[in-house]
């Protein structure tokens, strides 16, 4: 993809991959420019979301971003806290994240997934006003939906390896399977 194509994608929105009653609704912070340019979530090659989904057992094979709608067949979906695309998540204001949290709460109440899995603890803290939140299951609920905060799969998140992320995603998968 050419740099000018990616730059032209700034502020675009990537459509949600959602349905009623999902097992897990994964929630990114916001789309990156490559995701917005392609229309596919977690599309940047260095992003570890798709490999981690497979390694954690959520999907039986490594899906490509262009196959994102296949997630629905596994009871999974994808949305974002903030809809507009940016080059980096740190371009979002705290107010945008809080407003995104309000909209995400409403979307979750409407769709009623069993679990909402937010990837990115810092964004979750801001969006939901949970300043002490940590990675893992949260005490808060949205309706009957449980919340799990996962590490951000961006290649920029060097604190987590693909293997340690897959283990945390796997903990969520086990909890989701147990709650069926």
TrEMBL record:
EC class of the enzyme, as a word:
hydrolase
Q: Name one Pfam family in it.
A: UDG
User: Which molecular function term from Gene Ontology is one that the record holds?
Assistant: pyrimidine-specific mismatch base pair DNA N-glycosylase activity
Q: Keywords of this protein's UniProt record, alphabetized?
A: DNA damage, DNA repair, Glycosidase, Hydrolase
GO BP, sorted A to Z: base-excision repair, AP site formation
EC code(s) of this entry:
3.2.2.28
The record's annotation in InterPro entries points to: MUG/TDG, Uracil-DNA_glycosylase-like, Uracil-DNA_glycosylase-like_sf
Record NCBIfam families: PRK10201.1
* Protein known as: G/U mismatch-specific DNA glycosylase
Give the originating organism.
Streptomyces jumonjinensis
């Amino acid at each position: 993809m050419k740099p000018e194509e990616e730059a032209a994608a700034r502020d675009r929105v990537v459509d949600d991959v959602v349905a009623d009653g999902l097992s897990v609704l994964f929630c990114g912070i916001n789309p990156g420019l490559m995701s917005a340019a392609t229309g596919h979530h977690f599309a940047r090659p260095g992003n570890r979301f798709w490999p981690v989904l497979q390694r954690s057992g959520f999907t039986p094979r490594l899906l490509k971003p262009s196959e994102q709608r296949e997630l629905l067949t596994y009871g999974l979906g994808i949305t974002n806290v903030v809809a507009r695309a940016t080059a980096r998540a740190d371009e979002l204001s705290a107010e945008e994240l809080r407003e995104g949290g309000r909209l995400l709460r409403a979307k979750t109440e409407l769709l009623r997934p069993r679990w909402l899995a937010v990837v990115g603890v810092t964004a979750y803290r801001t969006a939901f006003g949970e300043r002490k939140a940590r990675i893992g299951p949260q005490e808060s609920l949205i309706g009957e939906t449980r919340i799990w905060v996962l590490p951000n799969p961006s290649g920029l998140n060097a604190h987590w390896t693909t293997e340690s992320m897959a283990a945390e995603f796997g903990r969520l998968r086990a909890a989701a399977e147990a709650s069926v």
